[in-house]
Amino acid sequence: MKKHGLLLPAALCAAAIGFVLRLLQLQEAAQSGGLPEGGGWIILAAWSVLFAAFAVFSVRKIPEKTAYNELYKNHLLTTVLSVLAAGLILAANVYPLLAADGIAPAELLFARIDSILGIAAALSVVAAAAALRKGAKPGAWTTLVPTLFLLVNLVLNFRRWSVDPIALDYCYKLFFSIASMLGVYYCGGFLFDKGKRRVSAAWCLLGVYFGGVTLADGGLQHCLLTGGLMLLLMFNLIQLLRAE
């Protein structure tokens, strides 16, 4: 395994540090202007910028490949990651359907659309894993459905987050949503044999990092979905970084 094979462990270590920094930031009292009283938010912001620069710089020398069969291989570890990812994504989207009491009709409609797409995305991940397990290329729909779900999920969440005047309350969730959506989108390009290995790896690394940071925010549904997407991005990273 070449040096770029160490990028995933580096992202996980950076995410663990970011998780701790986020926890410390959330414990700081807010000033009248909305910013936390301590300087924890500055440290986390600086750490995030450093990791983002590291991720972008580190993928520059990875040999570029475009075809699915050049990178994606059947391995037990990646199959397990895919199944676990699908299970968490499924649980995250079934939960809102079971806890829909007290929600306004319009919001309930949006939530149900989001959940149905999420369930379809989870099934797509399982279908892709099953195809790869058989040595076949998954169908294009197995990447189009998750991408559509993440796009809709991002729009609906930002609609809710943007009401909060304090950007620090949601900015890391926003960064994670963007990174995970683009990570899945660019990795999907390999199913059309038009993949961009470096760009895909960079977005997946950023998704793993920001996902780890936002786990500190808590919330059952958020943690289930974030955990599932992190595992999905890790599955892709292992495939992208393992080969020469």
User: How many E strands?
Assistant: 0
Number of helices: 9
Q: H/E order of the elements?
A: HHHHHHHHH
Low-confidence stretches: none
Main β sheet profile: none
Average pLDDT, to the nearest integer? 89
Q: What gyration radius follows from the Cα positions, in whole Å?
A: 18 Å
Give the strand content: under 5%
| Oligomeric nature of the chains | single chain
Q: Share of helix among residues?
A: over 70%
Shape type: globular
Write the layout of secondary structure elements.
Blueprint: H1 7-26, H2 40-58, H3 68-71, H4 76-98, H5 105-133, H6 141-161, H7 171-188, H8 197-214, H9 220-242
Helix pairs in contact: 1-2, 1-8, 2-8, 4-5, 4-9, 5-6, 6-7, 7-8, 7-9, 8-9
Care to give the gist of this entry?
With 244 residues, the chain is mostly helical. The chain has helices at 7-26, 40-58, 68-71, 76-98, 105-133, 141-161, 171-188, 197-214, 220-242.
